[in-house]
Design a protein that fits this description.
Order of helices and strands: EHEHEHEHEHH
Oligomer: single chain
Strand order of the largest sheet: 2-1-3-4-5
Structural class: alpha/beta
CATH topology: Rossmann fold
Strand content: 15-25%
Largest sheet: 5 strands, parallel
Shape: globular
Number of strands: 5
CATH architecture: 3-Layer(aba) Sandwich
CATH superfamily: Flavodoxin domain
Number of domains: 1
Bound molecules: flavin mononucleotide
Amino acid sequence: MKETYDIAVLVGSLRKGSYSGMLADALIRLSPANMTFRKVEIGHLPLYNPDLDGREAGGAWAQFRDEIRGADGVLFSSPEYNRSVPAAIKNALDVGSRPMGSSVWKGKPAMVATCSLGGVGGFGANHHLRQPLVFLDMPVMQQPEVYVGGVKALFAEDGSIASEATEGFLKTAAETFAGWVAKFA
Ligand SMILES: Cc1cc2nc3c(=O)[nH]c(=O)nc-3n(C[C@H](O)[C@H](O)[C@H](O)COP(=O)(O)O)c2cc1C
């Protein structure tokens, strides 16, 4: 067991003040002290093109891979776009999965949290995201599943959570993830 675990945080929304960013921040805040987090940017990554990999144009990809390679686990927090994941997240997964045989994702424990303005909580995105994570051989925490609906009423601008029940649920999820990471790291 390590003393602290370093978790890479990928947020699926690129906009400022995003609810999925707030959800990530809440999970970070509610996590045990032995979990340290760093947000890894994905919005600047060019769309993956194998022809350009290993050349100058692939510099952002190489840096991104290094940032993931060093992590003990990965927290994904994302909105749902058209019943799936935003392209930025899928692109980041593709970038990290190559060159063939050097995937940076393999074996890293992961948690998937999704949110939405409506009541469904990004269920479609959550499960679409789980599909590549299986292929990438990332052990994904199964329970609790984190679908957070009604985010507009839930999060205040300062990131505080209006519902005690939801805050308690997110704390349980964050603590369970800490245990999950410790099993694999
Ligand atoms: C391109 C696009 C597609 C969307 N598709 C869905 C959807 O399929 N399901 C849903 O619940 N919300 C959908 N929304 C609404 C988002 O859930 C909402 O904009 C949310 O606030 C985005 O997350 P963010 O606050 O983290 O940026 C969509 C929004 C955008 C911009």
